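BUG: 3D viewer hangs when loading the predicted structure for this chain

Environment: internal workstation, default settings.
Expected: structure renders.
Actual: progress bar stalls at 90%.

Input used:
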Amino acid sequence: MDEYKVSKITVKNALTALADDGLVVRIQGKGTFVSSELPLPQITLPSDSAGTSRGLVGFIIPTMKTSVIQKLVDHVEYYLTQAGFQMLLRITRESSAEESRAIKELLDAGVQGFIVFPTEDEKYNESLLRLSLDKFPFVFIDRFLRNIDTYTITSDNLGGTYETVSYLLKKGHRRIALISPENANTTIEDRTAGFEKAYIDHGVPIDKSLWCHVPLDILRSEKALDYIAEFLISHRRLTATVTLSAEMAQLTSSALKSVGLEASPPELISFDDPGLPNIPYVMQDEKKMAEVSVSLLQQQMEQDYMPQQTVIPVRLVLPGQE
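Structure tokens produced before the viewer hung:
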């Protein structure tokens, strides 16, 4: 007002216009700030019952394409709102570079904590390591990086697959295929370990030639269906197939039809609901994962910093048991 000799309402209107264009961010109780590289929406912080601002929490996810992540977003937003926080969502599209960029942007926006669902390949990320070293409040959800000591929330990936394979072995199956994304993250590593442990504990010899880990570059291309179809053609004597994600179950079901095995297909079980009729699946408890992640984030914000891994139980759902 002093420098440009204009009225207060003119300055207010100018700042409102800049905020509408995403060039500045207006944070209640703090002021107006130049936005980071990408335009950010105007932000109004929520208040808790005492009338004090609780702040912003960033939720970083790799994609919105899976039902598991969609449910996590819904439940995390609910529990953050209940705790008096506002969620800022960023999608990395499975890119570690975008993951780092999202962390920087959200820090610039003033978030007080993060919940992070890491990228599929779980590449080393210096930005996440820095958060851990600085003891900045954040939680890994579903996947995590083993070299970073922090809070993690996962489903019982090992136990869920162990129960599934044990169920098939008890039914008399011996030629059980494992069809999965490339073994490039903790989730797939643990599910694969559960598969193997079931064979060991039941005293059944395991044939790892029946394992099909689809490379990520193929899985993200149009070649994935052909890749699985070729595997099935080479292993026509399969009696059962365990897929380690809903996406793999859908691809495997399509591949079985493409190679003419739909008339007498191997029994198919999926980790996560593939949305296919009469297919047993391992059901995760996304609501509980979200609730615990928000609770642990609040613990860190209250200076109670004790990194820990929390494993949420899962259950095998057979047809008619939903």
